[in-house]
Design a protein that fits this description.
The chain is an alpha+beta fold. It has a domain at 24-85. It is 13% helix and 16% strand. It has 1 helix and 4 strands. It has one helix at residues 60-72, and strands at residues 40-44, 54-58, 76-79, 84-85. The chain has a 4-stranded antiparallel sheet with strand order 2-1-3-4, covered by helices on one side. Strand 3 (76-79) and strand 4 form a beta hairpin. The radius of gyration is 14 Å and the shape is globular. The chain starts with 39 loop residues before the first strand and ends in a 12-residue tail after the last strand.
Length: 97
């Protein structure tokens, strides 16, 4: 599900059929979780029962509270500068292969 505040340009679709990653949240956007200004755009990959990726605009509080869950599902996080950031909480360990 795409955020109702963000428009997707069909020309931005990637060759493999995946939608291109959205840019950073703008000041005009509102978070999906509360009335606060978003600080990150989260792209959740497709999964069982969800054939397409979903993007969420999260405020700082809800992003910090959700980092472990976002990392567990392999979400990508884009901050307000357009930089892709790691959703894994600081101090946590990723499984070593």
């Amino acid at each position: 599900m795409r955020s109702p505040h963000r428009k997707v340009n069909p020309a931005d679709a990637a060759a493999d059929g995946q939608a291109a990653r959205p840019g950073p949240p703008s000041l005009a956007d509102r978070s999906c979780c509360c009335p606060a200004r978003p600080v990150v755009t989260v792209v959740i990959p497709p999964g069982p029962g969800r054939p397409r990726s979903a993007d969420l605009l999260l405020c700082g509080h809800h992003y910090l509270a959700s980092r472990a869950a976002l990392a567990a599902v392999g979400a990508s996080v884009i901050d307000v500068t357009g930089t892709v950031v790691d959703p894994v909480p600081a101090g946590s360990q990723r499984s070593q292969k």
